[in-house]
Amino acid sequence: MELLIAIAIGSLTAAGVYLVLRKRSFAVVLGMTMLSYAINLFLVVTGRLVIDRPPILQGGAASYTDPLPQALVLTAIVISFGMTALVVMMALGAFLEGGDDRIDMPRRDLTGADRKPPGGTARPGHRPEGGA
Amino acid sequence: MSPVLIALLPFLGALLPGLMVRAGRGAAASACAIATGLALLGLCLHIPAVMAGEVVATRLPWMPQIGLNADFRIDGLGLLFGILILGIGLLIILYARHYLSREDAAGPFFTYLMLFQGAMTGIVLSDNILMMLVFWELTSLSSFLLIGFWKHLPEGRQGARMALTVTGLGGLAMIAGMLMLGQIAGSYRIGDILAARDAIQASPLYLPALVLILIGAFTKSAQFPFHFWLPRAMAAPTPVSAYLHSATMVKAGIFLMARLWPVLAGTPEWFAIVATAGLVTMIVGAVIALFQDDLKGLLAYSTVSHLGLVTMLLGFGTQSAAVAAMFHIVAHATFKAALFMAAGIVDHAAHTRSIARLGGLRALMPLTFAIVAVAALSMAGIPPLNGFISKELMLEQATLTGAVFAGLATLGALVSVAYSLRLVVHVFMGPERDDYPAAPHDPGMGLWLGPAILAALVVVIGLAPDTTAGWLVGAATSAVTGQAQHVHFALWHGVTPALMLSVAAIAGGALLLAAWVPADGLRRALPRADAKALFDAMTLTAERWARRFGDGLTNGSMSRALAAFMLTAVICGVAAWETGRAGPPVRPMLPVQPVAAVGWVMAMVAIGCTVAFHRRRILALVLVSIVGLIVSCGFIYLSAPDLALTQISVEVVTVMLLLLALNFLPKRTVLDTGNLKRGTDAFIAAIAGLGFGGLAYAIMRRDFAFPSISGYMLENSYKLGGGDNVVNVILVDFRGYDTYGEITVLGIGALAIFALTETLLSGRSAQRLRHWVHDMRRAGDRHPLMLVVATRVILPISLVVGLYIFLRGHNAPGGGFVAGLVVSIALVMQYMASGFAWAQARQNIPYHALIGLGVLAAGVTGAGAWFAGKPFLTSAYGYFSLYGIEPFELATAMGFDTGVFLCVVGAVMLALNSLSRIARAAGQRVNVRPMDIDLTGGRR
To answer: Chain B contacts of A67, Cβ < 8 Å?
Structure first.
């Protein structure tokens, strides 16, 4: 079982790293999610594999699994949600402001030239009906 | 009053202007004045004890492990400087109240001023050099804010930057020097260091420590060659100049030299560096001051010169020279603060500070003239004013040191007489002019009272030096030299060499002023070194190199930087593995269970497919959530039910979040990388995966190298924390402080998201959003009947489930985190099913407030432990019974967990809410009823 879990962690890492190295923001978000899975799993298994012995105290139980990595990972999961949300918001903001979802800093940003509007989705002069 | 409170009062006062400024500038100034006055009163109450030779000290352990303690002491030196800082501070507050114009923001100004005052008071009352360094850096920062207070003036900004750069760099050097000093003495307490003179002077580290500390002191006190920042700082409002450059900031370096005088002074190195630097500064400053056209510039360079004088006296290293130095500090503070304030009055009245455009103000501003005349004559060293006494003392010490020093000191004094007289003659004497930029007149009492008090002091100290200042100077000198000093000052000592030199200096100075016009012509003909140009060139070069270095490292390509990071991580990991020692893989492997194997195969397929199809974004999202689900199941398998609960609920909110975001992002990723790039990335990914997986395998096959601390947690979870769920007890009790930090981070993240949304909803992107056309057709029934009904039925049930999970958290899987997520999901479901506007109208909860409330609740619960005399976040628990239900447990940890719960709900909802607001801005129609049908079918 240890080998299978190690392979799963390795695959999650590899997939995560590959996606993080893409040039578009959404892939990077997916990659970061994958990497969080890998790291959280890794942290949990540093307490070694223990089956069916959750760290809930009860009379008669001989031993429990290591609770410390679990406590670490629990907050890590929630924080990684916060991080994902922030990154997604930044990606969205960059797309709305800059017109594309590349993550590299374009050279034209350094020279200050103007950027083009979002790729084909916005038609100036057209206003949707309704609205608040 | 405790010395701690005295040092703290100005900081407390700094909070007041922000609260009071709505009631007007007067209220803000009064609040500051009260805080300052209280601190001054508290300090003065210690005068009898200090005069009796006591050192009032308090000790508060802060980080005793590294020798950092909040130790304060009041001895003669601290008393002298404290009275100067707080006393002149009081006058400055009065002056500033009337000086600032209506456009100036009085609130920030007084806040900065009080911060600065607190930092200075902290320096002079510190009994621990590490803490003194903290205050030292604070003076650099707060003076930066004060000097650059007029943000619209480029000179103000440049001057502030230069002051910060020079004094900040000096501060860095001083930190190194102070650490060395502490190392040699074996303690960072000033009391201990002062007792370790022999050890320090015998140490090989003495010279480096001395040089580094002196760099700090010289930069702060504007000693040559670091003097150039001070005149540039004159772009500050005049109250700032009067405070910083007469009594306080520039005296900090002097104070430090005096404070460490017993251990550092008296060696040839000390004499060579300090006395020489002081002498050169005195002469250079005086000569430049003589030719300044700006009133404040003249005063600034004269300050440089006088600081040089005090430094030189300290450099002599004799006890009588120290007496002279202390006396001159008092004298200089009185006359220079008065002069600066008077310069501000002239500027205020005549709308110019250029000496060339002034003159003949004697009859127009008689009161100001009187103040300036008294103060300037004191600066020139004319009897019977206090400047005469200190100048005599200085010349006497220079005569004792040697002919060279005597001659050059007299030269310095001579030039000083010339510029002091010039201040009177060129500004106030001469014929009245008719081309002043504004009609000069004497100001109201608020402006002249402060300098007038100081001018009166100048006279009184001169006439009765022993009764007015002698005792204080004596106490200060006793503290500096470490031996009780009984000082005696007098105007008349008989005909001494010092008197002869003094007379020569006055006569020569008057002659020099008479020949000012030809002298100025001569100076113009000579080449000059401009320190500012030099400084600018240096900073530009440093910036250019930093830019070159930074650009060389990264070209703006994120994936390149990340690839470099990944490779570095792998290389470090391999190196650590190769050089470290790991035991043999002794743990037996667990057998593979069929269900686990099936889950594993599914996960691997999903991972592979995610990578393969990641460009089809919605599909990739589905695949990732499959991986997440299996990871959650894996947590159950690995005996981690809490994690499984958390992971699965986070999974739900993450998918919702990404779906909402995908609404606006392209649904497909364009293929824009070549085969080579993808191949390289795949290679990097493969070795990263191999490395991390291999490491996981290696760890799992080995036993713990050291006994784990988890045993303690398991054993004491119930005994100390009162809970059976060890993970929850660790979160809310054993490691509660970590959790407290984490919910704060989560809250900050959510607030950042909110702020980003605010930005996006204004400006260019808002315009784009208004004209947004969705690239996918929308469903006709946006709010399907089935979903609406189902979520409404489920809402109360899921809220109860959330409550249940929260309550059981201490003893069974659950707790604030999971409960918060479950409740958020229940609420978000309403948004999704019934529409944002409809749901918002019915659950108008301010989510930011929820985050704040959560952090507060957790903090208050933690602080509650203080009242029981326990450390922060210690929890207590007990069993209670109510009629009708069985006994149940209540723990204070529950209050903390409530904080966690509120924070998580607030953060998750704020994040999702922000995305919904963007959707609304993009023209999503607002429904008034929970169910509606879009008859256009998404076509428009």
So the answer is: 710, 713-714, 717, 726-727, 730
Q: Is B741 on the interface with A (CB under 8 A)?
A: no
The reply to whether A90 falls in a domain is yes
Range of the domain at A19: 2-50+68-102
- The answer to whether B303 and B338 have CB atoms below 8 angstroms apart is no
State residue B354 phi and psi, 5-degree precision: -80, 120
Q: Which helix (H) or strand (E) holds B889?
A: strand B888-891
CATH of the domain at A6: 1.10.287
Query: Which residue of B589, B590, B768 is in closest CB contact with A96?
Result: B768
Over residues B228-240, the mean pLDDT reads 85
- Out of A23, A30, A47, name the one closest to residue B559 (CB): A23
Interface subset of B 453-512, CB within 8 angstroms of A: none
Query: How many domains does chain A fold into?
Result: 1
CA distance A30 to chain B (A): 7
Which tokens is B502 given?
Answer: 């003094």
B796 CA to chain A: closest CA distance, Å? Answer: 24
Q: What is the ipTM of this complex?
A: 0.83
Is residue A61 a part of any domain in this protein?
no
Residue B388 pLDDT grade (very low, low, confident, very high; cuts 50, 70, 90): confident
B57 Cβ contact list (under 8 Å, min separation 6): B3, B71, B72, B73, B74, B127, B191
Considering chain B, what is the average pLDDT of its residues? Answer: 86
The answer to whether position A46 is within a domain reads yes
- Please work out, in degrees rounded to the nearest 5, the angle formed at the alpha carbon of residue B156 by the alpha carbons of B155 and B159: 80
Name chain A contacts of B759, Cβ cutoff 8 Å. Answer: 93
Residue B878 parent element (H or E): strand B877-880
Higher pLDDT, B908 or B442: B908
Percent of chain B with pLDDT over 90: 26
**Contact B920/A132, CB-based, under 8 Å?**
yes
| Contact flag A86-B643 (C-beta cutoff 8 Å) | no
Instruction: Say yes or no to pLDDT of B476 above 70.
Output: yes
Which residues on B lie below 8 Å from A43 (Cβ)? none
- Has residue A84 been placed in a domain? yes
User: Please, which residues have CB within 8 angstroms of residue B596's CB and are 6 or more apart in sequence?
Assistant: A1, A4, B637
pLDDT band at B255 (very low <50, low <70, confident <90, very high): very high
pLDDT at site B441:
80
